Amino acid sequence: MGAAENKKLIQAAFDAWAAGDGAAFFNILAEDVQWTVIGSGPVSRAYTSRQAFLDGAAKPLNAKLAGPIQPTVVDIIAEGDNVVLQWEGTATAKSGQPYNNSYCWVMRVADGKVREGTAYIDTALVADLWQS
What is the per-residue pLDDT for 123? Predict the structure, then answer.
């Protein structure tokens, strides 16, 4: 797959997520994805599989929220196997506080799967959510 196809893959997954399919993005992660969340918050670390990323980051984050994160794609840039996705995620914490985070994900896509990713997020906002 080339850059255009990789960009379409990511856009389609986020379109499906925005339409209510919360698993859409996770379904395009390779089983052995190498995913790193930058920072020093409760989900910041290197994950060595899709399941580890789900169990260590996605599920604990979703457990703190009253409903699913609503994603809005801001921009997608693709070159070769590399895709950079800038997006906004909004939700409400179970405590009632708003959760509005900005994300930048740098990914390597091969054979229709995300093989590597690095997530840049407001980890202080995530840490605050853990305290609520």
Answer: 85
Taking alpha carbons only, the member of 35, 19, 61, 38 closest to residue 116 is 35
Measure the CA–CA gap between 42 and 29, rounded to whole angstroms: 21
Q: Compute the distance between CA of residue 109 and CA of residue 117 in angstroms, rounded to an integer.
A: 9
Q: Over the Cα atoms of the chain, what is R_g? A: 14
pTM above 0.70, yes or no: yes
Distances in Å between the alpha carbon of 48 and those of 20, 37, 115, 127?
A: 27, 12, 10, 22
> Which parts of the chain register pLDDT below 70?
none
pLDDT at 10: 98
Structure tokens at 54: 């789900």
Structure tokens at 119: 């997530």
pLDDT at position 131 is: 82
- pLDDT for the residue 57: 94
Q: In what order do the strands lie in the sheet with 29-37?
A: 46-47, 29-37, 113-121, 98-110, 82-92, 70-79
